[in-house]
């Protein structure tokens, strides 16, 4: 007979009560003959009936224990067997009052009228997790009690919202056990703002609401604040904090969560006096949140998927749309983000719409009555009782469903540990989840066995936050088990308990801290980042402990941890102290920073530490003028007005002009998000400070433009802005799907209905609208079975959608999504890509990696949502409808337990050091496991210092490259390759150069796609006056020389056009007849092009195409683009890496290597189209070329420069391993050729370069208006350092082709000596120009004059050099000509 130690579970003024458990070998034991007058009430709980074991546990409740007893003596009887039991108990001391010491009152973070006190309690109740109550009627609201330890005699934290601070001093609250309200102890109270008022209120903004439903955002000016701010009746949940200035003149951001209220919000000031400002803040009128039509449901038993298919449908009338979620009996809440679940949308104007929902989910094959709850914005809109009856009737179950056969905890580090559970599901529905220490362990954490009877393991990071003391093992059976109480309830026949506080943690409280201080404790961040070090120690510490500290930020609500503000320390052996280095960002508002010191059982707050260490507990930051405020809009104007009418044949442009203000940091970059009442998925237009032409980054003018053609539908467009300054401060008008305290950049406009309306533009389309939703007409599943426990979890499918009127939208943001739904509505959303279209019918493909362990029980449903036509009608198809239509409506999964999966790793730095790698199924002690690491020169073995199936530790050497790669082999099975990139603090974004003085009316225009600024100047004469209207096509030529020394730079998704006349400028001139051909702005000899213009003179265009075919033999891309009915006419462009030369100090070639015999590796993943080609020269040097296709606009970094990859860019990245030079003076030269050729008649060719022949910046080859444009950076990454290089024109040495229909050039990239490796970055684009080139060589003068034609960008960037071919079909006559032998071979290989 085994028993747990008894502990108090109740006490009154005369006696005590105890709780404990005993385990016996039969349920027939009885207990009697209590010595001392007490009684025992046993409550039996059997754990192992399904395992045929006789062990049972009894929960024993001993009551009426007098203080004279020191043991529980009774007789236990089983049949004729008796056992005299005596269990020692703690001394019973009937409760009178707590003995406590109370701290002063502290304000909790930046929350209005919420205060905290710390109580040190000493009392005879050694009750685990005692239940305590606090109150101060008339003074406290929403009071909470938090135990810093589950054990008695420790610190207790109480928090409350003060109803008022008037007459606060001298009052007392009370604390008492909740079962003994008559036995209380007083808590002294004090007013923390008991001072003479210096507060002066200034400007305040009007209300800014989140769709005028949930939250209000204000900005106000306060000077010398030393008062408590209270709002309304103090029941509002308000966060307020300073964001700009200093104490003498500060701007504050206030975030008010006041759902459903209307009228004005009073502002109350509390200090030694009290002032009420009843109408200080205006408040939005209350709106009806949502109207819901009567929800309907259908339940169909589907024996094929061995589950019910549950369909729920309803109509939701609402303003805006955030996730709709469903919840079942088991605690699974599933969010459905737009457009998931929506079958159609009906326009109700800018203030709302009607959304028709219809969605399916699987329900297990049981007979059960369940309640399905549908929520919107966390508010219940429907609670449907549903009856499920499976035929034939399945077996019934009683008792617990999940048995924990074994429970183990393994240490990892100070506050990280592994939990391993051996669990058995008696109903064979499979383990779904179990909650432990604020972490969920799911069925897919299976590492051995199967989902019904297996071993599950996960890693837990201890945060010190409060967690549920009861755990709930849950199966996929809809009724979950009762909770298991931690610490005091046996979980199995081994009499195991789940500890409330794992012994593997580093445990200490504030009382254990022996030394604590920050050096320095005053940090000036006025002009840059600051640093300090926390130096401390605590009792019973170990040198292996790794303490950490967390600094909460204003932008994160309570309970949300910003990992960027967590700092981890180490033991300093020379001082015998722990050191935690801390970095503090620039220009924080002067204050004492709030922090939490990570500890077990609970984190330790700054204020609690200050009670022991006084001023040493504070870290004070000072700033002359703080900036924690994002950019804001000063002026907003609609373009061309608030209402626009579009005729059927029109092409119009709408947009907004605005002035951005951000001082002292300066606006860095942002996104304009344009949505409408018919289309809530925004068009995202990115822009940055370089797009400003009037003013500067501190106060500048910007414009956003959106083209609309006549095939449109009337709707109201709306602009939101997400803006960042150079310090990373954010301002956002789209609050997203959660309420967060982010500053709204439009705050200066709000409160004035006329100005608020400026964010909307009404577009009236003359064409008769298409009001019919598009339809899904075909679906093919290419991967019917997927192992979701492997590294290859690719889901592949194709489907066709049709629309007979307006046609299917081909905007990538409108691509449909495929939704896979599992039991209880668990789902994953997969994006599709457009494969082909004829306008009215389009085919989409899906090629996506499923989440690890998704639908691991075996089946999932397939639905398609978000099918959009050009008139913004929304369509889709549920799995039930797909089944009815005869389409494949479900897929099947398996879950293997043998393949190791590497997932994440710790932050990697230059110095390497210990790195924890997390994953799944990475091997038990009994398995054969090895680890390999690749620093850049191939894989090598590396020992593991600690390993569990879910985490292991390796000690990484110094890292010279940008990343390392790690693989694991378990019992001969190789894992995926995990690439760990070195953490590098990103350099500050580029600030705009000094601008010419412009008139106040000039603007910068930003359009809807991408803009890339290009390097290049010429000696052509340019007009000092730029265009004064929207960009128009003008002819331009570029001379063969140039003087600019600038390098390529890139701006993201933007274009710029000037609308005013600058003063004369000494800056270098830009190419073009007019600067940048009138299609961009010239800055320091460099063209920043308006979208969609591109090229050195902004006279070419980009075009989006599907991914190209891949050549398995060499890194060559062949793109074919139709251009008319004659399919035999085409233009071929080839860019290739010809040779590698080693050159002596006398400029003689002493070694030459032809580049051939490439080896290709397919590295394409769900999110990346990537092929790698390798070739070796001189036996030891490897040249690697990566060919990557970008579907979406992407910004990458090379040599600390931001480079934008436009859609359809093909990037060739080249790197070289160490080369054995013949002597110390030789260098390398990588020779590349570029050729463009056609077989068409009546053509002209031209060659243009930028820079000098021995200092080449760019080259452009033309066949009529088709051009091949290459840019060459003047730097490379050599031995991980950005170093200058030179590029030279080799045409005088290489005899290139130069005819009317073919033009070729050779370029040499000069590479200095290096030791470890090089990375190069030329950039190539195949374009179609707006005008034919001048100074060209022509076969015939009978030329057509065509307008601008779309082209294709084939960019090559980062580590780069390449072989690429592209073919363009054009309408012309076919003529024969002879190619030289060398080119002919290349052309033949590409056709």
Automatic annotation (TrEMBL):
Region Disordered, residue ranges: 984-1070
InterPro entries: ComC_SSD (IPR054484), DUF7034 (IPR055462), DUF7035 (IPR055463)
Pfam family, one: DUF7034
Transmembrane domains' residue ranges: 1346-1370
Residue ranges constituting the DUF7034 domain according to the UniProt record: 774-895
Biased amino acid composition, Low complexity: 998-1062
Domain ComC supersandwich: 1134-1327
Keyword Transmembrane assigned: yes
Residues of the DUF7035 domain: 626-765
Keyword annotations from UniProtKB, A to Z: Membrane, Transmembrane, Transmembrane helix
Biased composition (Pro residues): 985-997
PANTHER family reported for this sequence: EGF-LIKE DOMAIN-CONTAINING PROTEIN-RELATED-RELATED, PTHR31378:SF17
Protein name as catalogued: EGF-like domain-containing protein
């Amino acid at each position: 007979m085994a028993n747990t130690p008894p502990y108090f579970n109740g006490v009154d003024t005369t006696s005590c009560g105890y709780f404990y458990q005993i385990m016996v070998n039969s349920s027939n034991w009885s207990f009697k003959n209590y010595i001392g007058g007490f009684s025992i009430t046993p409550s039996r709980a059997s754990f192992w009936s399904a395992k045929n074991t006789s062990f049972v546990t009894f929960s024993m409740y001993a009551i009426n224990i007098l203080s004279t007893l020191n043991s529980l003596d009774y007789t236990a009887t089983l049949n004729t067997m008796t056992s005299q039991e005596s269990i020692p108990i703690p001394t019973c001391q009937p409760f009178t009052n707590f003995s406590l010491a109370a701290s002063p009152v502290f304000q909790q973070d930046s929350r209005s009228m919420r205060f905290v006190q710390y109580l040190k309690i000493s009392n005879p109740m050694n009750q685990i997790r005692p239940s305590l109550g606090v109150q101060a009627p008339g003074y406290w609201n929403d009071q909470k009690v938090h135990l810093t330890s589950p054990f008695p005699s420790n610190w207790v934290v109480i928090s409350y919202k003060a109803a008022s601070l008037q007459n606060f001093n001298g009052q007392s609250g009370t604390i008492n056990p909740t079962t003994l309200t008559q036995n209380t102890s007083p808590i002294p109270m004090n007013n923390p703002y008991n001072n003479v008022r210096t507060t002066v209120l200034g400007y305040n903004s009007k209300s800014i609401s989140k769709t005028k439903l949930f939250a209000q955002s204000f900005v106000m000016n306060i000077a010398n604040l030393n008062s408590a701010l209270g709002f309304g009746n103090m029941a509002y949940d308000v966060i307020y904090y300073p964001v700009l200035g200093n104490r003498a003149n500060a701007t504050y951001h206030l975030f008010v969560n006041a759902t459903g209220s209307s009228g004005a919000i009073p502002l109350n000031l509390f200090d030694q006096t009290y002032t009420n400002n009843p109408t200080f803040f205006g408040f939005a009128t209350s709106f009806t949140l949502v109207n819901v039509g009567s929800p309907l449901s259908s339940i169909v038993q589907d024996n094929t998927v061995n589950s019910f298919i549950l369909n729920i449908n309803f109509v939701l009338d609402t303003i805006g749309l955030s996730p709709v979620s469903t919840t079942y009996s088991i605690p699974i809440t599933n969010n459905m983000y737009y457009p998931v679940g929506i079958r159609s949308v009906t326009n109700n104007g800018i203030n709302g719409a009607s959304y028709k929902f219809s969605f399916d989910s699987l329900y297990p094959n049981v007979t059960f009555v369940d309640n399905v709850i549908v929520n919107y914005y966390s508010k219940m809109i429907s609670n449907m009782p549903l009856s499920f009856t499976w035929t034939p009737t399945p077996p019934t179950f009683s008792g617990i469903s999940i048995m924990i056969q074994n429970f183990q905890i393994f240490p990892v580090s100070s506050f990280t540990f592994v939990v391993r559970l051996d669990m058995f599901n008696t109903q064979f529905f499979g383990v779904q989840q179990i909650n432990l220490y604020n972490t969920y362990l799911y069925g897919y954490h299976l590492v051995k066995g199967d989902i019904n009877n297996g071993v599950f393991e996960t890693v837990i990071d201890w945060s010190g936050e409060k967690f549920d003391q009861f755990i709930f093992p849950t199966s996929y059976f809809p009724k979950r088990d009762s909770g298991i109480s931690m610490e005091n309830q046996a979980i199995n026949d081994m009499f195991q308990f789940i500890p409330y506080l794992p012994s593997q943690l580093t445990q200490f409280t504030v009382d254990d801290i022996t030394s604590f201080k920050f050096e320095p404790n005053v940090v000036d961040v006025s002009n840059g980042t600051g640093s300090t070090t926390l130096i401390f120690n605590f009792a019973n510490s170990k040198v292996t402990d790794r303490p950490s500290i967390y600094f909460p930020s204003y932008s994160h609500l309570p309970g949300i941890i910003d990992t960027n503000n967590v700092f981890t320390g180490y033991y300093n052996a020379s001082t015998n102290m722990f050191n935690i280095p801390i970095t503090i960002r620039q220009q924080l508002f002067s204050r004492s920073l709030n922090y939490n010191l990570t500890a077990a059982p609970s984190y330790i707050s700054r204020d609690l530490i200050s009670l022991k260490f006084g001023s040493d507990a504070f870290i004070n930051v000072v700033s002359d003028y703080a900036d924690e405020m994002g950019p804001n809009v000063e002026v907003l104007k609609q373009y061309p007005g608030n209402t626009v009418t579009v005729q059927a044949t029109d092409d119009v442009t709408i947009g907004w002009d605005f002035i951005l203000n951000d001082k002292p940091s300066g606006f860095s970059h942002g996104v304009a998000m344009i949505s409408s009442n018919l289309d809530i998925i925004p068009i995202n237009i990115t822009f940055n400070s370089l797009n400003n032409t009037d003013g500067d980054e501190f106060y500048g003018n910007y414009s956003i433009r959106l083209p609309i053609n006549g095939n449109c539908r009337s709707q109201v467009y709306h602009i939101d802005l997400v803006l960042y300054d150079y310090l990373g401060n954010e301002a956002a008008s789209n609050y997203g799907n959660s309420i967060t305290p982010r500053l709204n950049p439009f705050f200066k406009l709000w409160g004035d209905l006329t100005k608020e309306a400026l964010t909307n533009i009404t577009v009236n389309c003359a064409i008769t609208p298409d009001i019919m939703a598009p339809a899904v007409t075909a679906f093919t599943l290419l991967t019917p079975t997927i192992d979701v426990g492997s590294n290859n979890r690719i889901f592949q499918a194709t489907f066709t959608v049709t629309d007979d009127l307006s046609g299917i939208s081909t905007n990538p943001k409108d691509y449909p999504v495929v939704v896979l739904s599992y039991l209880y509505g668990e789902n994953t959303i997969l994006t599709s890509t457009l494969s082909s279209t004829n306008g009215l019918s389009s085919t989409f493909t899906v090629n996506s990696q499923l989440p690890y362990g998704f639908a691991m029980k075996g089946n999932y449903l397939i639905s398609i949502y978000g099918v959009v036509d050009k008139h913004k009608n929304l369509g889709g198809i549920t799995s039930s409808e797909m089944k009815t239509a005869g389409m494949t409506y479900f897929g099947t999964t398996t879950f293997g337990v043998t393949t190791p999966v590497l997932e994440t790793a710790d932050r990697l730095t230059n110095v390497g050091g210990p790195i924890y790698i997390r994953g799944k199924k990475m091997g038990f002690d009994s398995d054969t496991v090895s680890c390999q690491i690749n620093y850049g020169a191939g894989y090598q073995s590396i020992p593991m210092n600690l390993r569990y199936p879910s985490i292991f530790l390796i000690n990484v050497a110094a890292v010279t490259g940008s990343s390392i790669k790690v693989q694991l082999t378990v019992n001969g099975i190789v894992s995926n390759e995990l690439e760990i990139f070195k953490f590098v603090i990103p350099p500050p974004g580029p600030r705009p150069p000094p601008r010419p003085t412009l008139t106040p009316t000039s603007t910068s225009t930003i359009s809807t796609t991408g803009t890339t600024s290009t390097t290049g100047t010429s000696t052509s004469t340019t007009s000092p006056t730029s265009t004064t209207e929207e960009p128009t096509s003008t002819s331009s030529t570029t001379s063969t020389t140039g003087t600019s020394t600038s390098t390529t730079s890139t701006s993201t998704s933007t274009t710029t056009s000037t609308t005013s006349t600058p003063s004369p400028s000494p800056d270098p001139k830009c190419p073009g007849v007019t600067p940048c051909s009138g299609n961009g702005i010239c800055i320091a000899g460099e063209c920043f092009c308006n979208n969609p213009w591109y090229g050195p003179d902004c006279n070419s265009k980009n075009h989006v195409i599907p991914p190209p075919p891949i050549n398995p033999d060499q890194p060559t891309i062949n793109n074919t683009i139709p251009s008319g009915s004659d399919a035999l006419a085409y233009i071929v462009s080839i860019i290739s890496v010809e040779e590698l030369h080693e050159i002596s100090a006398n400029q003689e070639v002493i070694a030459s290597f032809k580049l051939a015999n490439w080896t290709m590796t397919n590295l394409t993943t769900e999110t990346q189209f990537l092929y790698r080609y390798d070739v070796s020269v001189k036996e030891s040097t490897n040249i690697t070329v990566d060919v990557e296709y970008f579907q979406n606009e992407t910004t990458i970094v090379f040599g600390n420069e931001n480079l934008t990859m436009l859609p359809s860019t093909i990037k060739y990245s080249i790197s070289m391993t160490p080369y054995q030079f013949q002597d110390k003076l030789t260098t390398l030269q990588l020779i590349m050729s570029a050729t463009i050729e056609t077989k068409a008649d009546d053509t002209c060719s031209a060659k243009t370069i930028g820079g000098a022949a021995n200092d080449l910046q760019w080259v452009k080859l033309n066949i009529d208006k088709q051009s091949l444009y290459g840019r060459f950076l003047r730097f490379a990454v050599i031995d991980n350092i950005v170093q200058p290089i030179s590029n030279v024109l080799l045409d005088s040495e290489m005899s290139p082709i130069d005819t009317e229909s073919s033009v070729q050039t050779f370029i040499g990239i000069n590479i200095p000596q290096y030791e470890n490796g090089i990375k190069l970055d030329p950039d190539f684009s195949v374009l179609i120009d707006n005008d034919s080139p001048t100074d060209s060589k022509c076969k015939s003068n009978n030329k057509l004059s065509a307008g601008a034609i779309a082209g294709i960008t084939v960019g090559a960037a980062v580590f780069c050099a390449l072989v690429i071919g592209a073919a363009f079909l054009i309408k012309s006559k076919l003529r024969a000509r002879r190619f030289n032998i060398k080119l002919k071979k290349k052309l033949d290989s590409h056709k």
